[in-house]
TrEMBL record:
GO terms assigned for molecular function: ATP binding; phosphorelay sensor kinase activity
Official protein name in the record: histidine kinase
Matching NCBIfam families: PEP_his_kin
Transmembrane segments: 6-27, 34-53, 73-89, 96-117, 129-146, 158-179, 231-250, 256-277
Record key words, sorted: ATP-binding, Cell membrane, Kinase, Membrane, Nucleotide-binding, Phosphoprotein, Transferase, Transmembrane, Transmembrane helix
SMART domains in UniProt: HATPase_c (SM00387), HisKA (SM00388)
Mode of membrane association: Multi-pass membrane protein
Catalytically driven reaction(s): ATP + protein L-histidine = ADP + protein N-phospho-L-histidine
GO CC annotation, single: plasma membrane
Amino acid sequence: MNDLGLISYGTGAATFSALLLVLAIGYRSRPMGGLLLFAVAVNASWLAVSAYALYVDSFPLLGVQLSETLRNGVWYAFLLQILGFNLKAQGLIRRLALLIFTLVLLQGGLLLGFSWLEAVLGAKPSREIMLAGQVLLAVIGLMLVEQLLRSVPQEKRWAIKYLCLGLAGLFIYDFFLYADALLLQMINPGVWSARGLVNAMVVPFIAVSAARNPQWSPNVYVSRRMVFHTATFLGTGLYLLAMAGAGYYLRYFGGSWGIMAQAVFLFAAGLLLLSLLSSGQLKAKLRVFISKHFFNYKYDYREQWLHFISMLSEDSSLPLRERVTRAMAQLVESPAGMLWQLKEKHYVPTFAWNLPFPEGLVEPKQSPFLRFLQEQEWIVEEGGEGMAAHPITVPEWFGKLKDPWLIVPLVHRETLVGFLVLARSRVGVTLDWEDRDLLRTTGRQAASYLAYQEAAEQLVQAQQFAAFHRFSAYVVHDLKNLIAQLSLLVRNAAQHKHNPEFIDDAVQTIDHAVKRMQRLMGQLRSAGESEQRESFEVVTLAHELAKRYAAYQPPPEVEGKDEGSIRIWANRERFSTVLGHLIQNAQEATPPEGRVILRVSREQGLARIEVEDTGQGMDPTFVRERLFRPFDSTKGLTGMGIGAFEVREYIQTIGGDIEVQSAPGKGTCFVLRIPQGEVGRTQIEEVKEAVS
């Protein structure tokens, strides 16, 4: 019994049987699929018969030879059917098929005839004829494979190239085996024994071609993850086998240094293997290679979609912006990304993953580039060919980022919610239609999540304002009680004004009412002021506010040269309250020895008002995320957290804009830019019309 041959053919029979099982489970009565199923079954049977013949020495050799001839004939029939042969075929393909099957039948007849002569008459016919016949059958197989490759158009060869490679490998190995036997008058036992493993290695090639041809393949799903892990395990096994062989060579030929050299080599090989297995870039390249060469489509869309939705919805411990950025980046193996979203009139970065957060970058809402993104939903690729058809200039900031690659629009209900900037992929690929369709579809889903989060935040703010209005009703009730107390005091004053005790009590009542109203007004501040607007002089108002807050430390200073009348269109009392709030905040954040400065000047047709202090300052994260968030106060129970929010909202209502320049330990500067005079009045009316 040949143990190596038994293991080899047994392995081959097992692998072909596994392929047969997969094909049989998903068989759907397709003619081409049925013939492939039959060819695989015959190949598995021949390998099983060969393994049994090696296990049982008395098994007749004729059974192995006939099953091998039948195997060749079935594979010829399958290849001829792909080439277009059927029972109604005419011309060259019909004559070729008849010739091939005649040769197969002749080879089978020779095997039966020689066996009969040897068994009945005791003759020993020449084996050269049978070996020559096997060589001829191998050549026929190679010829059919070559004809198949020639007949298939170039763009469709990807579907059958692995089948051609596998069968060509089988026929080339058969040709080598029998040609060597014909020359040496004996079959090489080692080459014969290895034949089973050679057949086993062909199974993946046949399986890949079956998966790429719907008319052959069954409806059986093979997970990309399973293929990835199988390929990883197979590669690891081959690597370990090669390293073991190299280690044995070092020990055997290394002399006195052999054992030490083997130990050092195997340790280094193990470290290298661990490094390769933990390499994200290598894993990404393997996934791309498997998707590109072993499947009809690059992506397993079901798995990609489930994983994408899972990342967006399940891990609530991470902010949604981070989940969106990471989920989109992982689709194309990008190592970093930056999310931009619409904030008021500009798109600004709101989250950066594995990239430094850029301060001061903005993209105007009405820029041609963003209109192009919204209308076309085009995936912009750095250096991509598709941009040649679209004469749109990419913003300058894109080239200044670290290794920029893609700009992916996030569109929800035909509105550009934001866009993602992704760093170059670790596998260095160029986008094709599959990548673009996947990014466009997932981008729409991510945009819906971001839009709903924005709506939820606005709803929360509306609920908070509703609660604030309820609180205002309570304050009004308290004011009503105070008015009632003071009214009673006034009515009794005429009768008891000469009574010293009444006077003392009246003073205490008034003092209590004043203090209580101060507390209420300190909370409500400017609630209830008239919204009537007028044109007024800002420099004069600045001097008035400086005097009003001079009693507090540090007293505000008005700087700058007199540039004449600088007027704006707004409600003077409401604007005075807003500007006073900034001054008060500056004083509270600045030590007595510090400075609070007011500046008024012109800037390109706008009134520029600065409130600067030398206080403790704020970090960029606080300015970006908390400063203008309503009901978020750093003063504990004494603050309501709507002061800065009220300042920004009112400045925008009168057509202006607000900028904050701050650094921890260096102070803060609020810059207000407001349209002057009648220009401001026109812009306010336009805003009202747009809102209505």
